[in-house]
Write a structure and sequence with these properties.
The structure holds two protein chains of two kinds. By secondary structure, chain A is an all-alpha fold. Chain A has helices at about 1-5, 10-20, 25-60, 80-85, 90-125, 130-140, 140-145, 145-155, 165-170, 190-215, 215-225, 230-260, 260-270, 280-290, 295-325. Chain A is about 70% helix and about 0% strand. The longest helix of chain A is centred in the first third of the chain and has 34 residues, at about 25-60. By secondary structure, chain B is α/β, with parallel strands linked by helices. Chain B folds into two domains: about 10-160 and about 320-390, Periplasmic binding protein-like II (D-Maltodextrin-Binding Protein, domain 2, 3-Layer(aba) Sandwich), CATH 3.40.190; about 160-320 and about 395-440, Periplasmic binding protein-like II (D-Maltodextrin-Binding Protein, domain 2). Chain B contains 18 helices and eleven strands. In chain B, the strands form three sheets. A five-stranded mixed beta sheet of chain B has the order 2-1-3-10-4. In chain B, strands 6-7-5-8 form a four-stranded mixed beta sheet. In chain B, α2 (about 55-70) links the parallel β1 and β2 (about 75-80). The chains are: A mainly alpha, B alpha/beta. At the A-B interface, α3, α5, α12, α14 and α15 of A face α1, α3, α4, α17 and α18 of B. Chain B: InterPro entries: Bact_solute-bd_prot1, SBP. Chain B: Keywords: Signal. Chain B: This is Sugar ABC transporter substrate-binding protein.
């Protein structure tokens, strides 16, 4: 966020001209961008920073039903909440660790698949052909639908006895011996992943398509003249040119997926099956369903630290890569 | 530079995204016991009682108009689905931004009472709505902890009963509903064949699981809480109760495995479609009607007990189910709120509302109305009066619903997958639930 504040330096060339002509305006010119940023900064503090600080404070309190109305009066509990959260031999910590691993596996698979399908579709739709516009619009439908309605529909389709999925897999194609459960037991992971990828890949597709528009056609023409085939063009031109777009896309997808609450909540309700117990819903359950906001807050803070660490390492690595490319 | 900016904005986006994870709750409230700053309006959160939210609005709106005509107070109505009600109440409690009057599930009374967000119903407040004696005792027992002033007033009462599909009973050659669990299982085995099943369950609905195992627990001499309010989920009685319930799917095979994923009252539509012969439910008449079932197609009997004769203690066959009406302590229209509660619990309104919802009035005088002599309501009324017990009125009742409800859900999932449910596996799930409670 500190980097954000430096943004005005982009307009540096203009300010260089300023002082020579009108000195008194200089201060105003320099401060104007900061003034313009001020409302956003204030909102950022109000909407994001303040809740974080409050969440942080809550994590050191014994915040149960007896104090939720006036949480400031809740007794301090020191590091108790954190100890409970990371005591992996006791049920609460054990369940948190389990849900962390489930979330990691889920995120890796979901982001990977979203990226793969989105990229493939974007590359495929670069060629002009009849019906391309319709296909493009169609691919974006999952992205445009309200999440709640879409996920509820998936929930219906995944029902064991009356759902469409089993009707097709079992009754029509005969791929399974008996109708499997999708919303309880181990298969719930597959169901969750399916909905997540269905929901997520159009975003990858959209961003990739935008990225592809920026690659000059001449590069492909030149490569084709030199005898490069389609695969070589994708490997040598498309993917390297898309790298900056990809870096942002993967990071955003990672954060969205890791924190996804809506999908599992609508699909499974307030207590998800163990195989699909994503961390956001797990924290929700620890806070809202068992009315222990202190432990829930401690878990949230741990999650935040983890995501910040991953993001930090990711940005550091990718910026190093970029530098080495330029040198 | 463009890349740098992209990275910077992603950095900012990351932070804000990560933060959303921590943004759970916050904010404190001013204390206060209500004021009369806004005497002309009231906000009322009604729980979803009818087949859908629209049906509720249709039932309640004319009554609210009546209240407005009488008092000049306009009531803003919001009907809230069950799945969201508790979370919304909690949010309102933490933020202090809630309705003036609201419906709560009566099992949450003690938990919400502990938060201090609800107006206590002392003698003075009760006097304003006609006194405590107007209400049925068992209903008052589910309005808060025994040693405190109630946190709410009973609004609609319900109890569990055994609803049976007459056509399916006839086809299986059964002439009367079972009175004991042994009879139920024996009848069930006759019915459960060829895609038909004897009993419906809502295996993924945590609250329903709790209601069922609580009554069974009483029959096995278990209460799930010790007398001083500590969790006691692993007693032999509790284990036996949970095992008996899940075994109806796992061992007796009279509950369809698909019921393990039910949580949206699907078992009621199976019942209406002649796929399931029995359900243990509270006031199901309106739902059956909305599913196109006429009243002579189903019958009602008390929920079975070991002895065949429901009563107290080990013959308890239902929880005291129902809805209570509460006033938010920091209401800006305390007089209006009390007037509204008085109106909704008046003899006349109780008759109208309970008739529409198919529930039993917790107000004694209203119960006398001939409309509540229907066979179904007679069973529910008798159960409430003689053989129902309120869920433990302890502050962590809500956690109990989540922890033990989830344990039962997990066991059903195992049973549905063909896994064996043993005393050991039941106990292991309940131990886990209890440890979670004690750690929190």
């Amino acid at each position: 966020m500190v980097q954000d504040a430096k943004e005005p330096s982009v307009t540096a060339p203009e300010t260089e001209r300023g002082p020579r002509r009108r000195r008194p305006g200089r201060l105003r010119r320099i401060s104007l961008p900061y003034l313009l940023l001020l409302p956003a900064l204030l909102l950022e503090i109000l909407v994001h920073l303040l809740p974080i600080v409050i969440g942080g404070v809550m994590s050191f309190k014994e915040l149960t039903q007896f104090f939720i109305r006036d949480w400031g009066a809740a007794p301090w509990s020191g590091l108790d909440n954190y100890e409970i959260a990371v005591d992996f031999d006791a049920p609460v910590g054990e369940a948190l660790l389990h849900s962390f691993f489930v979330t990691c596996a889920f995120t890796l698979l979901s982001v990977g698949l979203c990226w793969l399908i989105g990229t493939a579709a974007a590359i495929y739709l670069q060629e002009t052909f009849k019906g391309r516009g319709i296909l493009r619009a169609l691919f974006l439908v999952p992205y445009a639908l309200p999440v709640y309605a879409a996920v509820i529909t998936w929930g219906f389709m995944f029902q064991r006895d009356n759902g469409l999925i089993n009707h097709v897999l079992h009754d029509q194609l005969g791929l399974t011996d008996s109708a499997p459960f999708w919303l309880i037991g181990d298969n719930s992971f597959v169901a969750l992943l399916t909905v997540s990828v269905w929901k997520g890949w159009p975003f990858a597709f959209l961003i990739m398509m935008a990225g592809l528009q920026n690659i000059p056609r001449e590069m492909y023409e030149a490569a084709a003249l030199d005898g490069a085939g389609m695969w070589q063009q994708i490997r040598r031109i498309t993917l390297p040119s898309l790298r900056p777009v990809n870096q942002v896309l993967v990071l955003v997808l990672f954060l969205w997926t890791f924190n996804d609450f809506n999908t599992p909540f609508v699909l499974f309700g307030r207590s998800a099956p163990e195989a699909a117990d994503l961390i956001s819903i797990h924290i929700y359950q620890s806070s809202f369903a068992t009315w222990n906001f202190g432990t829930g807050s401690a878990m949230s803070v741990l999650l935040l630290l983890f995501l910040l660490a991953v993001t930090g390492v990711y940005l550091w690595v990718t910026s190093r890569e970029r530098k080495s490319v330029h040198v | 530079m463009r890349r740098f900016r992209a990275a910077a904005s992603v950095g900012a986006a990351t932070l804000s995204l990560a933060l959303t994870a921590t943004a759970c709750g916050g904010g404190s409230t001013t204390g206060g016991g209500g004021s009369n700053d806004s005497p002309k309006t009231l906000t009322y959160w009604a729980s979803n009682q009818g087949p859908n939210l629209e049906a509720d609005k249709k039932i309640l709106k004319p009554e609210l108009a009546k209240f407005e005509k009488q008092t000049g107070i306009k009531v803003k109505l919001e009907v809230i689905p069950w799945s969201e009600l508790l979370t919304k109440i909690l949010t309102a409690t933490t933020s202090g931004q809630g309705p003036d009057v609201l419906n709560i599930g009566n099992t949450w009374s003690a938990s919400l009472q502990a938060s201090g967000a609800l107006l206590p119903w002392d003698e003075k407040n009760f006097a304003k709505i006609g006194g405590k004696d107007r209400f049925v005792e068992s209903a008052l027992g589910s309005a808060g902890a025994a040693d405190k002033d109630p946190a709410a007033v009973p609004l609609y009462s319900m109890a569990y009963a055994l609803y049976y599909n007459k056509k399916m009973f006839k086809e299986a050659g059964i002439d009367k509903p079972p009175a004991t669990w042994d009879e139920l299982v024996a009848d069930g085995k006759k019915i459960s064949k060829g895609g038909k099943w004897a009993l419906g369950a809502e295996g993924s609905n945590l609250s329903n699981n709790i209601h069922q195992v609580f009554a069974l627990g009483k029959q096995h001499g278990a209460d799930f809480f010790t007398e001083d309010g500590k969790a006691d989920f692993t007693s032999d009685g509790a284990v036996a109760a949970v095992k008996q319930y899940v075994d109806m799917m796992a061992k007796d095979k009279i509950v369809a495995p698909g019921n393990a994923e039910y949580a949206q009252n699907q078992s009621l539509s199976d019942f209406a479609k002649d796929k399931t012969a029995m359900v243990l439910w509270q006031a199901a008449a309106t739902t059956f009607k909305s599913q196109g079932m006429s009243e002579d197609e189903w019958g009602v009997a008390p929920v079975p007990v070991g002895s065949g004769a429901p009563g107290q203690g080990k013959a308890t066959n239902s929880m005291v189910a129902g809805i209570n009406m509460a006033v938010f302590k920091n209401t800006k229209n305390i007089d209006g709120s009390l007037k509204f509660v008085k109106f909704m619990t008046s003899d006349a309104e109780q008759k109208i509302l309970c008739k529409s919802y198919g529930s039993v009035p917790p107000v004694k005088a209203a119960q006398e109305d001939a409309a509540f002599d229907r066979p179904e309501l007679k069973v529910l009324r008798d159960t409430l009066a003689k053989s129902a017990a309120p869920l433990p009125q302890v502050a962590n009742e809500s956690q109990f619903e989540t922890a033990v409800g989830t344990a039962v859900k997990n066991l059903f999932a195992k049973a549905a997958d063909g896994g064996e449910v043993t005393t050991t596996s039941v106990k292991a799930e309940l131990v886990k639930a209890q440890q979670q409670m004690s750690q929190q």
